[in-house]
Amino acid sequence: MDLTKSHTTEKYLGCDIKQLMSHLEKNFINGMSWENRDDWQIDHIVPISRAKNEEEFILLSHYTNLQPMWAEENLKKSNDLGFHNVKGRLIKKFGVKGEYQQYRYETSVDFNCFDCGKSKTSKLVVVFNDNWSNIICNGCYGKNLSKKS
Ligand SMILES: [Zn+2]
Questions:
Q1: Which residues, at least 6 apart from 34, have a Cβ–Cβ distance to it below 8 Å?
Q2: What Rg, from alpha-carbon coordinates, does the chain have?
Q3: Ligand 1 center from residue 33 Cα (angstroms)
Q4: Region 99-122: what's the mean pLDDT?
């Protein structure tokens, strides 16, 4: 989540950034702080990918559905819930860039790129809009990022 996009973010969050920060601080666990921001992530308690319509999307985007979570545990949760529909074990989640979230698998996995439509084999996958039906390849990811800037 990009906390600098305050307008759209606040609309869905139901609070402003200050309130969000204090909500997260209240939920910090053992040693989390803004200094080690890279080691923890903002997790949706109920995954946003579970939303079936816009109403549910808005409900799940609310700040009360957010919690800080150590990056490692966040991955474990993704694996346990099994909502990534690619056979493999996620071992790393990278920082979010806009609507893109990059993940690394333990071993190469097969998937169809949502963007170029090619079938790919890679350890790296990129998920668009937190939706595991929209997996794109690293090549398209790079292209799309450079288009934007
Ligand atoms: Zn592609």
A1: none
A2: 16
A3: 36
A4: 93
Contact 130, 82 (CB under 8 A): no
Q: How far is the CA of 102 from the centre of ligand 1 (A)?
A: 13
Nearest in space to 102 (alpha carbons), one of 71, 62, 65: 71
Contact present, 21 and 55 (Cβ < 8 Å): no
| 5/64: higher pLDDT | 64
CB 47 within 8 A of CB 85: no
Structure confidence by residue, pLDDT tens digits, 54-75: 899 899 999 999 999 998 888 8
Distance CA 28, CA 1 (A): 17
Domain boundaries, the chain: 1-83, 86-149
